[in-house]
Write a structure and sequence with these properties.
Strand content: 5-15%
Order of helices and strands: HHHHHEHEHEEEEEHHEEHHHHEEEEHHHH
Radius of gyration: 23 Å
Number of strands: 13
Largest sheet: 3 strands, antiparallel
Strand order of the largest sheet: 3-2-7
Helix content: 25-40%
Shape: globular
Number of domains: 2
Length: 509
């Protein structure tokens, strides 16, 4: 499979975006990696090099989650296994955390006091309710309630105080005054839910080389049946589906210097890609740090992401977000007048320690499944196209994790998540028009791709992107714009056979 047959369909301008990014970290000889010895650095530089050819898999490529990669048969439980390199004691902690992740919370007062405190407003009754089988959410099907997709809410800053809080990153957005930062479609008995929303779809045809026509569906969201009066006239909404849970601890173990090395906010190298780091405050230390988690990289740690989900999605307080009323605002007095689930004998908050420790540990240690068909000629051809089209300029293939990561299972692992964890302008087509922290309305964090080919197996759908609008992987690619426009145009210009090879590669991840 030489280079020429694959690239012959590309124009000279398209080939100009051929990446060297895949080896950007290695070329710096990891001088920023104070956690590594000289011997470690030499090993890391060697394995991080871009592939010299695409006629065979790279060394260790099937083990995309490092030593913890799950080798179990890929079935509906493919995203629910623990890292295989956990100790016996850690396996026990993982299983207890799994029980809490699946736990159904009850409204107050409840006879099951340890499960007391749901809502009063909420989107789901459990973590598993959104992350079904630890996988990817989807838009509601006709006649279904929206559970694994919800709306974020905010308004532009209204005062100097708002602007100062945003500048200092004390907040990342200004909540809607009545409905808060998230639109909850469910409520405990005796309380009105915040409302419902409808999704209207507009078909957009895209002509592909070879005579194919792809039909994209552009969603528009409209809220209705508001339970607490009208929203602020300048309310900005953003739909979000639940992302898959695999490999999160390994993403957390990527050295911050590796993320910074990939950032190029001013596009100094002139390749049209200007990824930037999201800066957020650590909820425990108050220090500014790198945001890695969430669709707009709004959270620095899995613990922070989990605490936010407990509060916003389920209405459960934790020691890190202690308001027992979740996202209920002062304008929703009916909500704040209801009983909460904090039990003095159990400790402060509705989910007191060690609940957060256990759920965090579980979330940090869901294994990445082993890759499939890495030596299939069509998959290898698709991988070559993925590199040549410029996809790896954002979907950075691989890293070597920190030698000093908190959990030994995450230390010094070669991983293949296909993300740079940076914010990128994805164009008007994917814009939600809603800034969050350092991310403007067109910017999104590059999502990891590992496990993406098992979405159908685990979750019985193939809906992708932040709101699940893409009905398959090709549609997801075709929605790319902004910094990814050139790469997307390469895919449009490919022959049908080459496009199928690219999709086969993605399905192997």
């Amino acid at each position: 499979m030489g280079l020429a047959p694959v690239t012959s369909a590309f124009s000279g301008a398209m080939l100009a975006i051929l990446l060297s990014t895949g080896s950007a970290i290695a070329e710096e000889t990891l001088s920023h990696r104070g956690d590594l010895s000289a011997k470690d650095k030499a090993k890391a530089v060697k394995v991080l090099k871009s592939p010299a050819d695409f006629e065979k898999p790279e060394l260790f490529e099937p083990m995309q989650g490092g030593a913890g990669t799950s080798k179990r048969r890929p079935n509906r439980d493919a995203f629910s296994h623990s890292n295989t390199n956990l100790t016996f004691e850690e396996q026990h902690t993982f299983k207890v955390g799994n029980g809490l992740f699946k736990k159904l919370w009850a409204s107050s007062p409840s006879s099951t006091q340890a499960s007391d405190g749901l809502g009063p407003l909420y989107n789901a009754r459990s973590c598993q309710g959104c992350h079904l089988k630890d996988g990817r959410g989807r838009p509601p099907r006709p006649g279904d309630e929206a559970v694994s997709l919800f709306l974020r809410l905010s308004i532009p800053p209204q005062s100097d105080e708002d602007r100062q809080a945003l500048d200092a990153k004390e907040i990342l957005s200004v909540p809607e005054p009545t409905y808060g930062g998230q639109f909850q479609a469910f409520a405990v008995p005796g309380l009105s839910a915040e409302g419902k929303f409808d999704i209207e779809l507009e078909n957009i045809e895209v002509e592909l080389n070879g005579g194919e026509i792809a039909v994209l569906q552009k969603p528009t969201y409209k809220v209705r049946d508001l339970g607490f009066g009208e929203m602020h006239p300048d309310t900005m909404t953003s739909p979000r589906v639940a992302p898959p849970m695999i490999g999160l601890g390994l993403l957390q173990a990527i050295h911050p210097g590796d993320i910074k090395a990939l950032a190029d906010p001013d596009d100094l190298n002139g390749n049209g890609i200007s990824g930037k780091v999201s800066r957020v405050r650590d909820m425990e230390t108050g220090e500014l740090t790198i945001g890695r988690f969430g669709w707009k990289a709004s959270n620095p740690t899995i613990r922070a992401q989990s605490a936010g989900a407990f509060a916003g999605d389920i209405g459960i307080s934790t020691p890190y977000k202690p308001d027992n009323y979740g996202d209920c605002t002062d304008a929703q007095q009916e909500c704040r007048a209801l009983p909460h689930g904090e039990q003095a004998q159990l400790g402060p908050s509705e989910a007191p320690d060690p609940v957060m420790d256990l759920v965090t540990f579980y979330s940090e240690n869901l294994a990445v499944p082993m890759r499939r068909d890495v030596d299939d000629p069509q998959v290898l051809k698709g991988k070559q196209i993925f590199y040549e089209a410029g996809c790896v300029s954002c979907h950075q293939p691989k890293y070597v994790t920190r030698r000093d990561a908190e959990n030994p299972a995450h230390q010094f692992q070669l991983i293949w998540p296909y993300t740079d964890l940076l914010l990128h302008d994805m164009g008007e087509g994917l814009s939600d028009g809603r800034p969050v922290g350092d991310a403007n309305g067109q910017e999104w964090r590059t999502p990891p791709l590992w496990g993406i080919g098992l979405t159908q197996t685990v979750n019985n759908h193939t809906r992708f992107l932040h709101d699940g609008r893409a009905r398959n992987l090709l549609e997801a690619v075709l929605w790319h714009g902004g910094e990814a426009q050139a790469a997307r145009d390469v895919v449009v210009s490919l022959t049908p056979d080459d496009r199928r090879s690219l999709i086969r590669f993605l399905e192997s991840l």
